[in-house]
């Protein structure tokens, strides 16, 4: 289980100071808006992805998101694509969790990618996908990828990934291998991961430390992602050379406020430093000026990671 600790503030990994500038605004291709099914008489709710780092003139910046926290288990939605399913259930080794598959309009005649997005503590991104999750889905679709948002099987108090980390990790990797890759036309060589806060902790301590064979197009760790004691599984030469691992955290996300007591800056520094020391050559760390735990440009980060991973 990860220890949420304060690092010493040292930074031996080369901080990619240019990342803020390198988070270039992608123009992308125009997408059909994400439109989820409503009860009769309900009105759609607009969401602006400029909140999450996309430019106002980006065609993905204003998707129409109608799904909110009132979605029903097993519901489907009308969107640009036809592969989406909400609140599906998956059980592995006695643990049961749920997941959304969001299809913003992938073309199955071309290689289809997969973005696995791990929520923070509390699982808001799963329970209310009407904002940030919608914008990540729009970005994923622009790269011809499905967005999968699993909800941790943890049911003890606040839902987390990092408590019972090994069991949750086994459930998560089985979800990808035994459900998503079997049921959806996903190219295994096009799998990207993104984790926020507690989800970044699961990535650093769990997925990247162990079964990283499912991380084929890199990972973005936002607002966290500390250093494990050791790698559970040795990295291959190809992983060391080619796997983009990005830590991105706001400079004000240092655990100094009641609303965000977790020191994500120190976690990101120690996590990036660890993987750099292990020999991963594509480690990038950026501390974004003027940002805190709750206002990160997540959509823009995901977009740039996916572009970088494809070269």
Overview of the molecule:
The protein has 8 helices and 10 strands. By secondary structure, it is an alpha/beta fold. The chain has one domain (19-309): Rossmann fold. The strands form 2 sheets. Strands 3-4-6-5-7-8-9-10 form an 8-stranded mixed sheet, with helices on both faces. A two-stranded antiparallel sheet has the order 1-2.
Brief rundown of the structure:
It contains eight helices and ten strands.
Secondary structure layout:
Layout: H1 19-22, E1 45-46, E2 64-65, E3 85-92, E4 95-102, E5 112-118, H2 124-127, H3 132-142, E6 145-151, H4 165-183, E7 186-196, H5 198-207, E8 219-222, H6 237-242, E9 245-250, H7 264-277, E10 283-288, H8 298-309
Parallel strand pairs: 5-6, 5-7, 7-8, 8-9, 9-10
Antiparallel strand pairs: 1-2, 3-4, 4-6
Helix pairs in contact: 3-8, 4-5
InterPro entries: AB_hydrolase_fold
Output the helix-strand order: HEEEEEHHEHEHEHEHEH
End-to-end distance, in Å? 34 Å
Spatial shape: globular
| Low-pLDDT sequence parts | 1-42
Give average pLDDT, whole number.
Answer: 83
| Percent of sequence in beta strands | 15-25%
Count of runs of 4 or more consecutive helical residues: 8
**Beta-strand segment tally:** 10
Largest sheet: 8 strands, mixed
Strand order of the largest sheet: 3-4-6-5-7-8-9-10
CATH superfamily: Alpha/Beta hydrolase fold, catalytic domain
Structure class: alpha/beta
- Count of domain modules: 1
- Rg is 18 Å
Quick one: CATH class?
Alpha Beta
Second CATH tier, the architecture: 3-Layer(aba) Sandwich
The name CATH uses for the topology is Rossmann fold
């Amino acid at each position: 289980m990860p220890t949420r600790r304060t690092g010493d503030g040292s930074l031996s990994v080369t901080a990619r100071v240019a990342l803020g500038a390198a988070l270039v605004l992608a123009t992308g291709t125009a997408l059909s808006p994400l439109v989820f099914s409503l009860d009769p008489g309900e009105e759609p709710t607009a969401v602006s992805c400029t909140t999450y780092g996309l430019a106002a003139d980006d065609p993905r910046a204003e998707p129409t998101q109608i799904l909110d926290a009132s979605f029903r288990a097993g519901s489907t939605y009308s969107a640009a694509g036809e592969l989406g399913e909400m609140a599906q259930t998956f059980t592995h080794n006695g643990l049961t969790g749920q997941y959304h598959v969001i299809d913003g309009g992938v073309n199955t005649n071309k290689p289809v990618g997969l973005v696995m997005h791990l929520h923070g503590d509390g699982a808001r991104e799963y329970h209310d996908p009407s904002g940030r999750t919608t914008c990540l889905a729009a970005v994923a679709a622009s790269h011809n990828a499905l967005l999968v948002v699993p909800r941790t099987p943890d049911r003890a108090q606040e839902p987390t990934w990092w408590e019972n980390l090994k069991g949750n990790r086994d459930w998560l990797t089985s979800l990808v291998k035994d459900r998503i890759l079997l049921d959806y036309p996903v190219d295994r060589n096009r799998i990207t991961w993104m984790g926020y806060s507690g989800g970044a902790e699961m990535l650093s301590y769990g997925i990247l430390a162990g079964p990283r064979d499912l991380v084929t197009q890199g990972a973005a760790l936002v607002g966290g992602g500390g250093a494990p004691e050791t790698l559970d599984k040795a990295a291959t030469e190809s992983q060391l050379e080619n796997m983009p691992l990005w830590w991105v955290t706001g400079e004000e996300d240092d655990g100094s406020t009641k609303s965000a007591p977790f020191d994500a800056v120190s976690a990101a520094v120690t996590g990036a430093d660890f993987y750099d020391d292990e020999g991963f050559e594509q480690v990038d760390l950026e501390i974004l000026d003027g940002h805190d735990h709750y206002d990160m440009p997540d959509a823009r980060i995901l977009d740039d990671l996916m572009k970088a991973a494809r070269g």
